[in-house]
Amino acid sequence: MNPYLASIFLPVLLSFLLGTRKNNKKRGVPVDVGGEPGYAIRNYRFEKPVESHWEGIVSTLAELFEQSCKKYAYMPLFGSRKLISREIEVSPDGKSFEKLHLGEYEWLSYGEAFKAVCNFASGLVRLGHGNDERVAIFADTRSEWQIALQGCFRRSVPVVTIYSSLGEGALCHSLNETEVTTVVCGPKELKKLIDISGQLDTVKRVIYINEAGVSAEVSLAKNNSSWQLSSFEEVQKLGQENPVESVMPLASDVAVIMYTSGSTGLPKGVMMTHGNVLATVSAVMTIVPRLGSKDVYLAYLPLAHILELAAESVMIAAGASIGYGTPLTLTDTSNKIKRGTKGDSSVLKPTLMTAVPAILDRVRDGVRKNVDTKGGMAKTLFDLSYQRRLAAINGSWFGAWGLEKLLWDFVVFKKVRAILGGHIRFLLSGGAPLSGDTQRFINICLGAPIGQGYGLTETCAGGAFSEYDDTSVGRVGAPLPCVYVKLVDWPESGYLTTDSPMPRGEIVIGGPSVTLGYFKNEEKTKEVYKVDERGMRWFYTGDIGRFHPDGCLEIIDRKKDIVKLQHGEYVSLGKVEAALSVSPYVDNIMVHADPFLSFCVALVVASHNALENWASKQGISYSDISELCKMPEAIKEVQSSLVKAAKDAKLERFEIPSKIELLSEPWTPESGLVTAALKLKREIIKKTYADNLKKLYS
């Protein structure tokens, strides 16, 4: 062969062959387990579920934190940005928006963080909080959240975690049910507490995290409650001046009562032991490559969600640095960032991030919008480079490889990577299924693998996790080393473990990360938790999955989301929504199906930028986005886009919404229509838009 041709084709052939071999790698293997008959898989590297990565040394989260603080004493741990200024910007239509100018990150070392934790633990005792009482943390994600959590752990005090976006009814329910006596809260959460102070039965002490502009809320609290009110700094100072000995917990002790975001009804408190969370942390430590003290993690998801709590625990275990941000200050163009100043990712330059699919979808849409706006040669170059990289990942002979990949990365994708700081080497997606389109797009543009994870609050996020060298999309990987994953038959809907070519059924998870159950809710606990004859604890997820030949799991349905139509066809609402959300016009979507009818409909929250760009090209005039969403031509355009997305996803005709309504107002956790993890609250949306749905069916 010509040496020049050989230099081109031999590397491609080698890459193709290696890729083929990699795809055939066994990542999960069958295992014999007890309990209900089914098809069970374990992680291919571990014979039995992992409980601790530091067997005989660390058995609780308190011990893990202390170990890391001693080992990495002088390394940076918690980073927070200093507020330089807070400004109000008024848009042309008269709406006001708060804009922040934030400075560099200021850091607490591991050693300094450990002192802060010990001081908080001592201060808590000196305030009068007893070890048999519970503390609630009701605040946005920040360093004080972790310091309070770890301080409670050093006194064996169980922590109740509550989403900062929780509504009044759910907040009262969570605090009263757990008989919380001390609440740690942020400034805006303090105001919420004041509003419901008369409905709280057991709260005696409130510790507020000081921040510019909080004085009004503190004065209001002092005048309108009988609580013992202290600032976070006061508690730490009190503890520093009056230290007390630690009372370390056992692995079997409850560490956290985590209230779910409540997609249906009131939230349930999931009881997690130190051993439960440690098992998940230990398992993830074996999956993510080269975790260490050189890593920088950008934390912005709710710490009241197990995904973020577990992720930050992994970072602490590895000696990494955690820089705190918010979803509204994440990038240079985020809503709360003052124009001309830097977002969190640009300043921090993280190497690791966790994200939920909704956020990754927005990053994808933002990049596409930017490329389409530029048009011309820039768009042509981006599309060409993307297709070449996609072909390479799919194993095509004509895909970009080697030097060509480096060229595309430098010329085209470097600018995309700069959106998240330019140094991301691994990204974890969890909380909901990630579409294959978004996964591939982010993977190519960021040049970093996406580990798609699957787990639930009830399993401490322990379930399945896709490995860094798995280039497939749409799957959630093999079982984590801390669990077994089993499929059991669901004959009512035709999902059987004997199905060919892949076994299918309800996903059941067993192992040391499976939690104790729901707080003060024995009936619900017995319904979904089971202990088998070998003593293994199992959780019945309600999700439907199938196992691929290599032992990797794919989520294909959910029991609660399946509706049987008039003529017997089954519609999986979640599956349809995931397929339709690929449309550039969709910011959010809820499909609704009435079992007494033969078709479904959809409520579509419009992507303002995409719809306005379309209207501009069509020469359509309108006063505001609300008026545009009501225009028949806009509805027709979005409907056509949904039909195209549905056909691309090979949906059945009855799965495609016959009618849609365009909505201009976004669904946010603050509005109560989605959870903190951005999952739909179907029942609340159905009630809120009952008249709209009725109109669609008429």
UniProtKB/TrEMBL annotation:
Keywords on record:
ATP-binding, Ligase, Nucleotide-binding, Signal
Q: Where is the signal peptide?
A: 1-19
* Any one biological process term the GO annotation gives: phenylpropanoid metabolic process
One family name in Pfam for this protein: AMP-binding
Output the SUPFAM superfamilies linked to this UniProt entry: Acetyl-CoA synthetase-like (SSF56801)
Q: Which reaction does it catalyse?
A: (E)-4-coumaroyl-AMP + CoA = (E)-4-coumaroyl-CoA + AMP + H(+); a long-chain fatty acid + ATP + CoA = a long-chain fatty acyl-CoA + AMP + diphosphate; (E)-4-coumarate + ATP + CoA = (E)-4-coumaroyl-CoA + AMP + diphosphate; (E)-4-coumarate + ATP + H(+) = (E)-4-coumaroyl-AMP + diphosphate
Which segments constitute the AMP-dependent synthetase/ligase domain? 101-519
Q: Which domain of life is it from?
A: Eukaryota
**Could you give one GO CC term from the UniProt record?**
membrane
CDD domains, per this entry? LC_FACS_euk1
| Enzyme kind, highest EC tier | ligase
| One GO MF term attached to the UniProt entry | 4-coumarate-CoA ligase activity
Q: What is its EC number?
A: 6.2.1.12
The entry assigns this protein to a family as follows: Belongs to the ATP-dependent AMP-binding enzyme family.
- Designated name of the protein: 4-coumarate--CoA ligase
Q: Which organism's genome codes for this protein?
A: Carex littledalei
